């Protein structure tokens, strides 16, 4: 006989879970007891939003569901931001939420929430486990759903009396199914469309990728000569130094790349949903009249043809699609007609990443270029949301897969929890978090989590004293009427030291490299505050402009 918390933890061990993220609550005490001697590391966080974002980042890094435990009501509400990130980023994740004693349901009991309603539109599947005997069944299904098709988050509510009750139910013994890939005979036709095009373009994104898949993609591009563009915040899916890489389709997209998407006569979409960010609000390709051949490969059949009618569609993960495409490229195929098109795309990208000087004593373009030139190829870069990220996305050259953690949902506060998760997962690698002053303050309390668990990310806070993105839009719509966008900031270097970390403030560009070296040498979590000219908004726009 085992209590529910022990059944739960034993099932997690069987599923290969070695680390969970949590903020404790009395609603799941039995689950905490089950974790006690399970061998699973419980990373205790300071806010449920941070915990859920760490679990999401863990899921990105491993390809397996990140696991998070939070308590009922306020805890679940706080964690919802991380669930939203996981859904929009197609990241496998399982959120366990403590729940009231189910014998008191519908009495508006203390912190009672109907989680099926609360998370219904945010998660792939939401369920409440009301029978201790069914814990293994539900948990196994949660992991299967989280990883199947288009991956995403699953939420399981755990009534406290169900967790504390005992049962002799065995662990779930079935296989947690992997994604099944569909290899259709039409692959040959798809390859023929690509070969016969005059201006083809490959756009990559979505889940399921690995370092090996990134290399195979590069080999496919080299074999065919077709240029490759990355989807929003998927820049590490191909070595950016590859001569076929044309840049990324982000919020501040290179105008030349945007035009190239318009001009392309054949789009091969691998893994990406090709959503509103990649298409600049569906303006680069008209959903009503695309005017080009579209070949879409995606693990979820509902995503194919959802916005754009396709010439060919394949229900397949990105790795399976790349393998099938490679298999159908014949050795005698003439793949030499795209040289000028591809060379021009590469030239546009290289011009775009040539730094343009901005005002101030500390220049973000130089900070990012220094990081790009100086960090190891396997360094992990994280960020949340804000105009500061435009410099990172534009000027940092990603060299290998698994080095970019950034939310396609545009969630502020994500970068620092993600950096903690990355540092815990890869303690031997350099982890750098880029954050704006507003972004960092949303989750800076997780400094305590980093110190407690030995995470050592280096946080570079770009401090301009405002919510810069909102101020930019504010000046466009209501010039000169500043409202709700000014920030009062702490001394970030002192804040780091208060938690036992390293802190430095940089007010001159020439001092950045020295500060970074000192942060690395400290061997602990570190903050480098870069004091910016508040007039700078984007890589190409000032406040006055």
Describe the structure.
With 545 residues, the chain is of the alpha/beta class. The protein folds into 3 domains: 2-167, Thiamin diphosphate (ThDP)-binding fold, Pyr/PP domains (Rossmann fold, 3-Layer(aba) Sandwich), CATH 3.40.50; 187-351, TPP-binding domain (Rossmann fold, 3-Layer(aba) Sandwich); 364-542, Thiamin diphosphate (ThDP)-binding fold, Pyr/PP domains (Rossmann fold), CATH 3.40.50.970. Helix content is 36%, strand content 18%. The protein has a 6-stranded parallel beta sheet, with helices on both faces. A 6-stranded parallel beta sheet has the order 11-10-9-12-13-14, sandwiched between helices. A 6-stranded parallel beta sheet has the order 16-15-17-18-20-19, sandwiched between helices. The mean pLDDT is 92.
SSE map:
Elements: E1 2-3, H1 4-14, E2 19-22, H2 29-36, E3 41-44, H3 48-62, E4 66-70, H4 74-88, E5 93-99, H5 115-118, E6 125-128, H6 135-147, E7 153-159, H7 160-164, E8 166-167, H8 187-196, E9 200-204, H9 211-224, E10 228-230, E11 245-248, H10 255-263, E12 266-270, E13 293-298, E14 312-315, H11 318-327, H12 339-352, H13 364-374, E15 380-383, H14 388-395, E16 404-405, H15 415-425, E17 431-436, H16 437-441, H17 447-453, E18 458-463, H18 468-477, H19 492-498, E19 502-506, H20 512-522, E20 526-531, E21 536-538, E22 541-542
Parallel strand pairs: 2-3, 2-4, 4-5, 5-7, 6-7, 9-10, 9-12, 10-11, 12-13, 13-14, 15-16, 15-17, 17-18, 18-20, 19-20
Antiparallel strand pairs: 1-8, 21-22
Helix pairs in contact: 1-2, 1-6, 3-4, 3-15, 9-11, 13-14
């Amino acid at each position: 006989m085992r209590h529910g918390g022990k059944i739960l933890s034993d099932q997690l061990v069987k599923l290969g879970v070695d680390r969970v993220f949590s903020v404790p609550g009395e609603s799941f005490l039995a689950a905490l007891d089950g974790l006690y001697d399970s061998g699973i590391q419980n990373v205790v966080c300071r806010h449920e939003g941070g915990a859920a974002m760490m679990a999401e980042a863990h899921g990105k890094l491993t390809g397996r569901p990140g696991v998070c435990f939070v308590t009922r009501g306020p805890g679940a509400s706080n964690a919802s931001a991380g669930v939203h990130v996981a859904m929009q980023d197609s990241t496998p994740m399982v959120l366990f939420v403590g729940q009231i004693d189910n014998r008191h349901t519908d009495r508006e009991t203390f912190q009672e929430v109907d989680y099926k309603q609360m998370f219904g539109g945010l998660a792939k599947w939401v369920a409440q486990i009301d029978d201790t005997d069914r814990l293994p069944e539900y948990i196994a299904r949660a992991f299967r759903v989280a990883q199947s098709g288009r991956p995403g988050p699953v939420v399981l509510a755990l009534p406290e009396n169900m967790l504390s009750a005992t049962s002799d139910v065995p662990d779930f013994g079935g296989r947690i199914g992997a994604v099944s890939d569909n290899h259709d005979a039409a692959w040959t036709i798809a390859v023929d469309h690509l070969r016969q095009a005059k201006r083809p373009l490959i756009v990559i994104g979505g889940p399921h990728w690995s370092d090996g898949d990134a290399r195979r993609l590069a080999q496919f591009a080299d074999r065919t000569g077709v240029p490759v563009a990355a989807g929003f915040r998927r820049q590490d899916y191909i070595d950016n130094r590859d001569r076929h890489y044309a840049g990324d389709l982000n919020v501040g997209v290179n105008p030349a790349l945007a035009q190239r998407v318009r001009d392309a006569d054949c789009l091969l979409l691998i893994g990406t949903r090709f959503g509103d960010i990649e298409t600049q609000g569906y303006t680069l390709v008209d959903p009503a009249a695309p005017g080009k051949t579209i070949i879409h490969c995606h693990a979820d059949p509902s995503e194919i043809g959802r916005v754009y009618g396709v010439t060919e569609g394949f229900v397949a993960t990105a790795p399976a699609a790349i393998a099938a495409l490679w298999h159908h490229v014949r050795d005698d195929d003439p793949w030499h007609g795209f040289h000028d098109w591809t060379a021009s795309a590469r030239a546009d990208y290289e011009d775009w990443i040539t730094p343009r000087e901005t005002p101030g004593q500390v220049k973000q373009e130089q900070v990012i270029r220094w990081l790009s030139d100086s960090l190891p190829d396997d360094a992990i870069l994280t960020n949340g949301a804000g105009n500061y990220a435009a410099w990172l996305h534009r000027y940092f050259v990603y060299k290998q897969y698994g080095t970019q953690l950034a939310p396609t949902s545009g969630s502020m506060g994500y970068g620092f929890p993600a950096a903690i998760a990355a540092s815990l997962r890869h303690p031997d690698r350099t982890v750098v978090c880029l954050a704006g002053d507003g972004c960092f303050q949303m989750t800076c309390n997780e400094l305590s989590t980093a110190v407690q668990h030995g995470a050592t990310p280096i946080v570079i806070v770009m401090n301009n004293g405002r919510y810069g993105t909102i101020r930019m839009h504010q000046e466009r719509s209501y010039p000169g009427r500043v409202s709700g966008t000014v920030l009062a900031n702490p001394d970030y270097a002192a804040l780091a030291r208060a938690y036992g970390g390293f802190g430095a403030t940089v007010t001159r560009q020439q001092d950045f490299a020295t500060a970074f070296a000192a942060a690395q040498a400290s061997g602990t979590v570190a903050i480098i505050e870069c004091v910016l000219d508040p007039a700078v908004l984007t890589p190409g726009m000032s406040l006055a402009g």
